[in-house]
Design a protein that fits this description.
Layout: H1 27-31, E1 36-38, H2 39-46, H3 50-58, E2 67-69, E3 72-76, H4 77-83
Helix pairs in contact: 2-3
Length: 122
């Protein structure tokens, strides 16, 4: 009879419905990471193994720029998007002027108009 110590328990098969098994990185999902991410996540996005990513980072050969923050590597997400030829969705400009300069008074607001009579054309 075998001892319990020598008996091997097999790991259960990976669930194909889990996020780890079918990890699809989209532009939105990468943007949701924030401005930077850790090296292991950046490696997963780029399709590099974790150990290879750390070896590349140590040799300063990682495919995108990264920086070291203490004992950790941080990778900006914008270069990852550029490397994958993905662009973030366009950001619409916020208009806080409310259309100033384009009113019915030929583009002048009441504070800009010369009401003194000086300098007016004859």
């Amino acid at each position: 009879m075998r001892s319990a110590r020598r008996t091997r328990n097999l790991a259960p098969a990976a669930n194909p419905d889990s996020d780890d098994a079918t990890c699809t990185w989209t532009t939105e999902r990468i943007l949701a990471l924030g401005a930077t991410t850790d090296l292991a996540t950046a490696a997963a996005i780029l399709g590099i193994s974790r150990s290879a990513a750390y070896k590349l980072a140590a040799r300063d050969a990682f495919p995108v720029p990264l920086f070291r923050a203490g004992a950790y590597y941080r990778v900006p997400t914008a270069p990852i998007l550029r490397k994958l030829h993905l662009e973030p969705p366009p950001v619409s400009p916020i208009s806080d002027t409310g259309g100033a300069g384009a009113d019915e008074d030929d583009g002048y607001s009441s504070g800009d108009r010369d009401t003194t009579g000086y300098g007016a054309a004859p």
